[in-house]
Amino acid sequence: MTAVTDSYFSALIGRLETLREALAEPMARASEAICAAARGDRRVYVFGTGHSHMLAEEVHYRAGGLAFTIPVLVGSAMLHEGAVISSVYERTEGLIRPIFERYGMQPGDVLIIASNSGVNAAPLEAADYGREIGATVIAITSLAYSAAIANGRRKLADIADIVLDNGLPPGDAMIDLPRTGLKVGPASTAVGTTVLNAIFADVAAELCKDGDPPVYLSANMPGAKEINQQLVRKYRPRNPHL
């Protein structure tokens, strides 16, 4: 391992170790909110733009994942339809509400929004929509990044019911490149997916008290076809991506 790769591993591991304690209380609250939604036959929506959209896909139809999660996928605000224009889209006001209206979000649902900067129009409008509907809004964001660039604007953390601060620096990247002033090694995706998977694992363990939780199996595992088909039949009516 080179000095640079070792530095990145050390920085990422150090961040996760710090978050284990720093996020203990808000992660417990997030788990409680998701458990309540699951027990009320509600859904958990996950939304992000740019690279943050990967957190929505991370929990969708995932081996070892819970079947009541629904990704909110906005192609033009992701990367595959044009990375440059997606950056414009996520900053344009008034475009997100019509997207969310097609998902049928209901009171008692949970909406998880991933936005590292926490100041762009799309995640803020999504949070406003979730609050209006009566969903519990959970933010995964960097408070330091938001504070550095908000300049008086509202921040996602101001709207959310529960805030999971990833503790990452403004700009996301953690490793300095000598003599350049540049940084590499972004970490918001790695940290965000770790936090999400930890929360959902905790939720699944809690739901075991009620019986077998709705967990997908890897398609290559024995019995996976039958179990996954049952889950898809149950949850497809409210999940347009199944």
From TrEMBL:
Occurrences of domain SIS (ranges): 30-209
Signal peptide feature range: none
Keywords: Isomerase
GO molecular function, one term: isomerase activity
Keyword Cytoplasm appears in the UniProt entry: no
GO biological process, one term: carbohydrate derivative metabolic process
Domain of life: Bacteria
InterPro entries cross-referenced by the UniProt entry: RpiR-like_SIS, SIS_dom, SIS_dom_sf, SIS_GmhA/DiaA_subfam
PANTHER family reported for this sequence: PHOSPHOHEPTOSE ISOMERASE, SEDOHEPTULOSE 7-PHOSPHATE ISOMERASE / DNAA INITIATOR-ASSOCIATING FACTOR FOR REPLICATION INITIATION
Protein name: Sugar isomerase domain-containing protein
